[in-house]
Structure formats: C-alpha cells, structure tokens
Write the structure tokens for this entry.
Amino acid sequence: MSELTAVADGLSFPEGPVALDDGSVLVVEIRRGTLSRVAPDGAVSVLADCGGGPNGAAIGPDGAVYVCNNGGFAWHDREGLTVPGGQPDDYSGGRVQRVTFDGAVTDLYTEVDGHPLRGPNDLVFDAHGGFYFTDLGKTRGRDMDLGGLYYALPDGSRVEEIVYPLQQPNGVGLSPDGDRVYVAETGPGRVWCWDVTGPGQVRGPAGGAGARHAKLLHGFAGAQMLDSLAVDSAGNVCVATLNTGAITVLSPEGEIVDVVPVPVPDPLVTNICFGGPDLRTAHITSSGRGVLYRTEWPRPGLAPQFTA
C-alpha cells in the first residue's frame, strides 16, 4: 500500500467523495452544509450550499450531483476531533437533492409512500440510471429511528422502499456486474447483501419482508462501527470502519483482505472513492480531523456509472 498523502485539511467533516475527470474531488462538508470542490493542489471552493447535512454524493446520468441530505447533526468538539451527535434543534428534515455545477440545489425527494425521509445517508447509481440510497434515520435523547434501503429515479418520478427495517443503514454499493447490492449498518457493524433481480428489485418480497432475504457478508467483532463504502473492480467491498479509523477491504466472500488506517489516527474515517485514469487513485475522508487523503490503491476501483 502506498503512503497516504493529505490533499486538503481544515474541512468541516468531509464525506461523500466523488472523483471528477479533471482530477479534482467533490466532498460534502456536513457540518458546514456545503458541497465543496477540492482541486488537485488542495484548494477548496464551495460549489453549493445544500443546508442541513449533506452526506453521500454521486454523479447522475444528467451530469448533476445527487446528494443525500440527513437534515443535520448536533455537533461536538472533543480532543481535536469534530464529532456528530443526535438530531439537532434546527433539524431540517431528510431529503435527496439534485445539485448542478452552477450551484443550484433542488429537493428531489422528501418522503417515500407518505413516510418522511429522516436521515438519507449514501447512494449509488446503477446501469439503468436509477439509484439506491439508504436512510440511516436520526438519534434523539431517548429513542432512534429505524432505517431502510430505497430506490429512486433522478427525474423525481419514482421512489420506493426496498428493505425495511434496517439498523442505521449507511454505506451502499453495487457489485461490478450489478447483481448484488451491499449495505453497511453503522451501530451493529454488519455488511449485508441482497441479490438484485431488476432495477430497484431484490430477491424476496419488497419492504419489510425483503430484510429476511439478506445475506450477511461480514459482521465485525468488538466496537467496530461502519460508515460508507465503495466497491473495487475485483468486487471487494471497501468499507470505512469507525473507531478502528481505517478502510477495511472485504472479499466478495466476506473475508478481510486488508485494513488501511489513516496516518494520523482518527476514529471517524468515513468514506472512500476511486478516480484517476486507471481508477487506482483512492481518496479517503478522515472526517473527525477534517482531512482528505489520497493514495495509490493496490487494485483499480470500480468505475462509477456516470462521471463529470
């Protein structure tokens, strides 16, 4: 594994990295409520003010950026780390947003079948132009939401529940041939997968019954919680592992292939994306310390369906 190099620091809880064709990287800054752009030289500029808590991001078939907005967190500063907490007093509601490169922001989805979105977290586009996304929910002083996995079209015409309930579903990704969808649950530290039978369809009944048809890819031991994930070209699932402060690489069979920590310890390593001409440049968000890292990955990443 090559050395991790800090590309940018001072970011306000970066997440949702998206590598662009010009070598720059989009990140959300959740605490600041922005979608920002990090140039190859590390210069940071704000692309759009999303409000709330922009989280996962991906380029859609129309070249716009689609953002899961969790509605915001209560924030804490602890021993040099920025730490997200529960539902804030100024919680603005969960939503999925469409953001254009001129900075225009549109709320695309705010509910599914009459149920408000609580804390949309991550998304991934499939070859058909639709996207899977997770709703992690929000945590309050005495209770917390259940979450789910959903599928939507980028034109605003369709959104539906695929699996419910899940416990804090966070990262979501697709296998190289699109026949599996993976979801990482944060608190339980589990990565699940489902067989995909069609666009937005998984094996087994839809909705709550669909949860019974999940396959456990890997359950992490101890106090290891999970965040977002990306899949590489070999089908390995690269999942951000909280507390450990690393990216853990799981084979398609669920075995641990590698563990890649960041050089300055941070329990809040949250995401990874792949870019560059050969898709072997990995960008990793060390969110608690506000750093975006870059490294050469041992294997090419999986090419996203759409780029900009």
In short: The chain is about 0% helix and 50% strand. The chain has a mean pLDDT of 96. The first strand starts at residue 5 and ends at 8.
